[in-house]
Amino acid sequence: MHTTGSNRRLQRRCSINSGKKDWVNIGFLTLTPIIGVVGTALYTWQHGLHLWMPLLLIGMYLAVGMSICAGYHRFFSHKTYEASPVVQVFFALFGAMAAQNSILWWSSSHRVHHKYVDHDWDPYNIKRGFWWAHMFWVFYRNEERDDTFANSPDLKANPIVMWQHRWHKVILILGGLGLPTLIGAAFGDPIGGLLWGGFLRIAIIHHTTFFVNSLAHFVGKPLYNAEVSARDNWMVAVLTLGEGYHSFHHRFPADFRNGIYWYQWDPAKWLIRSLRAIGLATELRQTAPPQVEQARMSAAIRLVENRIAEAPSTLAVDVRTRINTAVQHLEDAFALWRQHVEERAEGVSKAWKETRRRSRIHVRESRREWKNALRMLATAPQIA
Ligand SMILES: [Zn+2]
Ligand SMILES: [Zn+2]
């Protein structure tokens, strides 16, 4: 070690996560897909397919996958809403069955990812390559990581989190593998239950979660922040229970939604809203529409700044005039939005609804202006 010289030490300091290989993780992440996909296929080929098998897979996929997306991610890591202890215990139990370590470990790493995205300290830094961000980062012990979880004092103060941190491996074995085995046994086929609800489900949730760190930083559009690698992509959202609108999420991590429009595929958002409807979730945090629009406009303009600078002067003036009008609409939208919040808090009349509607009209007008500006720029003849 000492003879490897200062180069090695320097290299390690410069590239986080280049520590020793973690053979337990390597073995687990290699064997679970083999057993889960090949093993399940061969076993089912020999012993027959029954309806309860895919139903068990889907049921466990939803319970465990949602505990990661709506639980580990949107509740514990980002506190985008308040959840009742019953919901927290559910997320803690089923989240542990995902074989993605404890809430404390997961959320602490995830907060580091947000803070240092695309830089050395980012544990799943996409700049180190697609496969590194997808899963290779788990293959190494991170010798630089903070085992005191100093960035998560709120989680350390949560007894459910600390209890789960202590017992997550036991829950994984008893719940993640034992529970589907028992359900399979009830149908007379414990091994079929273990394979479909245990191994195959673990492999699927592993890789769909990993897609958020790889694909969602790789394909799609940087709609809300052109300076970081996070992307919005509906196909990734379909694969990941709604986590594919990742540009929005990195820009507004405190928002309980990832897909903010009603038509965007975000089952985790729908679950959180359903929990609110039955009184199990409160204080769902949402970004004000003018703020969302401002981020979107800034990101779009930033991508074409050079072209505006190089455009013929008359066109550049037209484009800038339209952008200024868009900015003015946004300022009006912000003022009306603040007014609607005050009117709503006073609770004396329903005038806030009209004020909110007017704010939204300004948001739409703003979008029309800046989009037209970009269209003018795109259709203008290029000068050599
Ligand atoms: Zn990310
Ligand atoms: Zn996040």
How is this structure best described in words?
With 384 residues, the protein is mainly alpha-helical. It has 2 domains: 236 residues, no CATH class; 90 residues. It contains 15 helices and 2 strands. A two-stranded antiparallel sheet has the order 1-2. Helix 3 runs parallel beside helix 9. The radius of gyration is 24 Å and the shape is globular. The N and C termini lie far apart (58 Å). 41% of the residues are buried. Bound molecules: zinc ion (2 copies). The site of one zinc ion has 7 residues, from helix 3 and helix 5.
Class by SSE composition = mainly alpha
Counted beta strands: 2
Q: Enumerate the strands of the largest sheet in spatial order, edge to edge or round the barrel.
A: 1-2
In N-to-C order, the SSE pattern is: HHHEHHHHHHHHHEHHH
Shape: globular
How much helix is in the residues?
Answer: 55-70%
Count of alpha/pi helices: 15
Distance between the termini: 58 Å
Largest sheet: 2 strands, antiparallel
Bound molecules: zinc ion
Q: Please state roughly what percent of the residues sit in beta strands, choosing from under 5%, 5-15%, 15-25%, 25-35%, 35-45% or over 45%.
A: under 5%
**Overall average residue pLDDT:** 91
Low-confidence stretches: 1-17
Total domain count = 2
Rg computed from alpha carbons, rounded to a whole number of angstroms: 24 Å
